Amino acid sequence: MEFLKTNIVTYYFRKFIFKAKLIIENPSDWKYTMDIEPIRTQKGIVILSHESNRLGASLLAENIAKEMKRQGKDICILSRQFGELNDEYAQIAPLQVFLSKRKLNKIFLELKRAGYNNLLANTAVNGDCIRMANECGIKVVSLIHEMPDVIKQLKIENQLKEILDYSNYVVFPTNEMQEKITSNYGKVSNQQMVKPQGIYLQDVSQQKIFNASQILEERIRKRSGQRIVVGVGNTTSLKGFDYFLEMSRLAPAEILFVWAGKKESFYDTCIAKNKPPQNFVYLGKLTGADEMAALYTSADVLAMTSRVDTFPSVVLEAMKFGVPVIGFAESGGVSEVVENGVNGALIDTMGDTDAFLQAIINIIRNPNRYRTLSENAKKTALNYSFENYVSFLIGLFD
């Protein structure tokens, strides 16, 4: 029991340090803690983001905000953290950063008076705000992106329960997640539904892609005849960066493994064990739509090595560019998009890098099969319209 208490204290101490670090690194964000004056409306929508770092859930919130505004909705954005995305949030709509629940209650009441009767809560981390919004008379649509293992890791079981009990609608990205969450944590009190999020990577001109590709080619320095396998995401254990690195060490020289994403401490841990193999390139974090488009254009295969990934947007982004995807079947949402032998391949056993690498080799060494997978990948991507996804969310409020 004493050990458990120590772990909890350590967890919350680290959480406090992390938030303090964000404040120190982003001092200009203090301006966003000031009260906002949104346009008065009748059916305004508040978008609640649990963080402002350039990560999947935050980028989803940003792009939902953009699309809702494009569809003519009055919106404002609330964030619980200082961070690099706040300036971008503020360019889309009025933004307020709150650092306490007491402040949030005041914000909800003021927004309600201004006609913002609807709240879109992004991720289960925001679950502790749902009851408060409900009691302020605000209609709540909650998006859950976390699988049960992540819920436990983040210690947000109570927040999730608040979502299930007090949201007007709970939206899951996959059937698998809906089933796992409700079987582990109980039924949704009101309405629940499944809706994949769609592709929010912005379209860019061929000229911009060409220019970005020229720069990318200089960094990658691919040898003649080499095929490129791409991994995307932060270099964490959760994203399976170690699996990706292991495959690059085992792969024949004809395959070049390229990883794009923010460097985390797990990167150094993996590299310290062995020197980086000659056919591995680390690009760092790519932020522009033109850079990502150039990356997918250069890729032959996307390797989704994640141990857990609810509904990885990079899978759909890669398929949009005709890139077949290989992933672990039990990792999460990838198995609801990737079909074995149709638009990619699924590996049955988590961590089976031998089978994963063999699937890569089988695809890239068979030109006819590759063409079929590539065309089917493009067709799959057409089914995931981000515009339709956001229209669906708006419809829940209307």
Automatic annotation (TrEMBL):
Entries under InterPro entries matching the protein: Glyco_trans_1, Glycosyltransferase_grp1
Endpoints of the signal sequence: none
Official protein name in the record: Glycosyltransferase family 4 protein
Source organism of the structure: Faecalibacterium prausnitzii
GO molecular function terms listed in the Swiss-Prot or TrEMBL record: glycosyltransferase activity
Recorded superkingdom: Bacteria
Domain Glycosyl transferase family: 218-379
Pfam family, one: Glycos_transf_1
